[in-house]
Design goal:
86% of the residues lie in helices and 0% in strands. The chain has helices spanning 3-18, 23-33, 38-50, 52-63, 67-91, 93-103, 105-114, 119-150. Helix 2 (23-33) packs across helix 8, helix 5 (67-91) crosses helix 6 (93-103) and helix 7 (105-114) packs antiparallel against helix 8. The two termini are 29 Å apart.
């Protein structure tokens, strides 16, 4: 595969993972659908899905100064704040590992610092969770494709 083709597919996979509501599953699936190899699909999908977390943790106060973004971020806080706090208090790190890809990296990045989760924990456990879901998604897709090709 030419480098320009690879980079186009990689950046598309990254972009799908980056935007809210698509998450790592859609990114990995998109990468594999474009014939990107499973490892590259996972790497780019994970990086895309993880990128908003450090960006939001670092730039949250700046983003809150933009009225449209402030309204959107406050809606995310209201939507997930109490549920995230209750679950984190009960399950700790396992909550972030298992739920980041389900609730969304954007939601976790916005809500977690507000409820007192240390940024290093958010970064580490969210990255682990996103990576695990990415690998499971790639294995499921590859296994399914393999099963269909042999039956």
């Amino acid at each position: 595969m030419l480098i320009i083709q690879y980079m186009t597919k990689a950046l598309t996979t990254w972009s799908v993972g980056f935007f809210p509501y698509f998450e790592v599953y859609a990114a990995v699936a998109a990468g594999m659908a474009m014939k990107l190899d499973p490892v590259s699909s996972v790497v780019w999908g994970v990086l895309g899905n993880f990128t908003p977390i450090p960006l939001l943790l670092w730039g949250y106060s700046r983003l809150m100064r933009v009225p449209q973004l402030r309204a959107w971020l406050l809606r995310m806080e209201r939507r997930g704040g109490q549920r995230v706090k209750h679950a984190f208090d009960r399950y700790g790190a396992w909550f972030l590992i298992l739920m980041t890809p389900i609730l969304g990296s954007w939601t976790i990045a916005v809500v977690s610092p507000i409820i007192g989760i240390h940024p290093r924990r958010i970064l580490l456990f969210s990255f682990i969770g996103i990576t695990l879901y990415g690998v499971v998604t790639a294995v499921a897709i590859a296994s399914g494709m393999s099963w269909f090709m042999h039956h």
